[in-house]
Amino acid sequence: MWESMVQAKRATVQLGRSVAMVFAMWLFICVLLIAAIGTLSLVGAWLLPEVVLLIRRIANAKRFMVATWTGHEIPQAYQPVTGRLRQRLRTVLRDPGTRSDLRWMAAFYVYGWMGVSALLLWPLGLAVDGVWSGLLRRRPVVLPLISRLADVESRWSAALLKPSPQALLAARVDELAATRADAIAAHEAELRRIERDLHDGAQAHLVALSMRLGLARRAYDHQPETARRLLDEAQDQAEKALTELRHVVRGVHPPILSDRGLVGAVRALAAGSGLDVVVDVDGLADDGPRAPAAVEAAAYFAVAEALTNAAKHSGSGQASVRLQRLRNAVRVVVRDEGRGGADMNAGTGMIGIQRRVAALDGSVTMTSPEGGPTIVDVELPCVW
Questions:
Q1: DSSP sequence for 108-137
Q2: DSSP for residue 362
Q3: Rounded mean pLDDT of the chain?
Q4: Fewer CB atoms near the end CB (10 Å): N or C, the chain?
Q5: What is the pLDDT of residue 378?
Q6: Which three-class secondary structure string do you get for 279-341?
Q7: What pLDDT score does 250 carry?
Q8: pLDDT digits (tens, 9 = 90+) for 47-94
Q9: Which bin fits 261, alpha (ψ -120 to 50), beta or left (φ > 0)?
Q10: In the predicted model, what is the mean pLDDT of residues 221-243?
Q11: What are residue 88's phi and psi, to 5 degrees?
């Protein structure tokens, strides 16, 4: 009996919030009428986008209420309302999310009042269940109806507030357009970095090498010692140029990744990181099927950046890397036991990793509470 009363109390609070919301929304009808008349008369057209944004906030508040009761979040898919007035009007009128919210509002004006029934069920439940459960030791029959009312109200709201397939498709198109733009920006930044590294590194060493070889050729007959010194310097310049070229190549696609695969490359990366790194492999093998080259490269650079950040900022000498093969993805988890407090948007390294992973429709999450640990979790879609 006591558990039924506690659950019925929670359901009553949930229904009471819905009743308060629907009451406020009845007052909101005046704003809707003003916006509609203003739009038709073209005088108050500017008001329509603001009203639609307010409706979105109301719908999101209801989504939060339903998620609090059911434990399941309701996704949202809205097109951003930006730009000039004509563009804003076109967006709110064509957005499928606007039509879904209006359908929900029209229905909620009716079923939102079902919470009033809870006020009638409480006296009846206390009387009937008090005898039925308190004296006869049977399960309550009336008070659980209040919880069922809250369940029904939440299910109806979830069904009406769930984005339509058109809205999900539009949101997906916007997401892909954003990730494509990020991928293009990252690609252009990578090209500029390669050009800068070649110009400032390998090209400068090759120019110096050419000059020393020319001077050595002129001094070869008359000043052999000077020529020998110049040739030694030219050899040093050639070695520096080769080092710079290897650095550029590793930044594009590490050769070790092609030769040894993701597992071998990550183990080599961990060995040279300066940290005590434990590499755990689940489902991936050196001689097994490999992920596409783009997926392996994204996973490799994510591990490299995470270990570099751990070595520089964590204050810990230990870290771990987990490589996991999922059914349709590759998952990489890098963890360090440092001081924590890391911010993914604080530097350019993790932002670059985010863009690289997003271009492959993957995801990057970082958790780094104060005091640690810092965990970087990367998941990349992959067809095996």
A1: HHHHGGGGHHHHHHHHHHHHHHIIIIIIT-
A2: -
A3: 80
A4: C
A5: 93
A6: EEEECCCCCCCCCCHHHHHHHHHHHHHHHHHHHHHHCCCEEEEEEEECCCEEEEEEEECCCCC
A7: 59
A8: 778 888 888 888 999 999 999 888 888 888 888 888 887 888 888 888
A9: left
A10: 79
A11: -65, -40
Six token digits for residue 21: 């919301």
Q: Is the pLDDT of residue 145 over 60?
A: yes
Task: Return the closest-CA partner of residue 152 out of 114, 101, 109.
Answer: 114
Which are the contacts of 339, defined by CB distance < 8 A and separation ≥ 6?
314, 315, 316, 370, 371, 372
User: What are phi and psi for residue 381, nearest 5 degrees?
Assistant: -60, 145
φ, ψ for residue 116, nearest 5 deg: -60, -30
Q: Which of 13, 5, 10, 7 is nearest to 126 (CA)?
A: 5
- Is 122 a residue whose pLDDT tops 80? no
At 150, the amino acid letter reads: A
For residue 323, the model assigns a pLDDT of: 92
Close Cβ partners of 179 (under 8 Å, ≥ 6 residues apart)? 355, 358, 359, 361
User: Per-residue pLDDT tens for 297-318?
Assistant: 889 888 988 888 888 888 888 8
Beta strands at 374-381 and 276-282: parallel, antiparallel or unpaired: unpaired
Ranking 50-64, 129-143, 153-167 by mean pLDDT, the lowest is 129-143
**What is the token pair recorded at 352?**
């670059």
Buried b (16+ CB within 10 A) or exposed e, 69-102: bbeeebebbbbebeeeeeebbebbeebbbbebbe
d(Cα 255, Cα 249) in Å, to the nearest integer? 8
Q: Give the pLDDT confidence score for residue 138 in this predicted structure.
A: 67
Q: What would you report as the CA-atom Rg of the chain, rounded to the nearest whole angstrom?
A: 32
